[in-house]
Amino acid sequence: TLFRSCTVLAPGYVETEFAKRGDLEGTNMVKAGGATAQSVAKFGYDAMERGDLVVVNDAKLGFMLNWIVPFLPRRMVLRMTEKNQSKE
């Protein structure tokens, strides 16, 4: 039997060369550290195998995105994101 599924993986910060190439080193997002690409890929693959529709690999980020952010004003969320991704 052919089983098809689609899973949206919404990872937090992943430690790759993107931060260096995107000049994001020194931002709060990068300072906080992130997951390895391998661990994120495994998390996403396992979620797909389970048939999950949308997953976030970081529990705190998942809680924020699912239970807090939907109740915040959009401009506040954008300001928080900008602060997290900007150099101070």
Biggest β-sheet: count, sense, barrel? 2 strands, parallel
Q: What is the CA-atom radius of gyration, in angstroms? A: 15 Å
Number of helical stretches of at least 4 residues = 5
Morphology: flat
Per-chain topology:
Elements: E1 8-9, E2 14-15, H1 18-21, H2 28-31, E3 35-36, H3 37-50, E4 54-55, H4 59-68, H5 74-84
Parallel strand pairs: 1-4, 2-3
Task: Provide a short characterization of the protein structure.
The protein is mainly α. The protein contains 5 helices and 4 strands, in the order E-E-H-H-E-H-E-H-H. 49% of the residues lie in helices and 9% in strands.
Question: How would you describe the overall organization of this protein?
Answer:
The protein is mainly alpha-helical. It has five helices and four strands, in the order E-E-H-H-E-H-E-H-H. The model has no long low-confidence stretch (mean pLDDT 93).
Give short descriptive properties of this protein.
single chain, 88 residues, mainly alpha, two-stranded parallel ribbon, two-stranded parallel sheet, 5 helices, 49% helix, 9% strand, flat
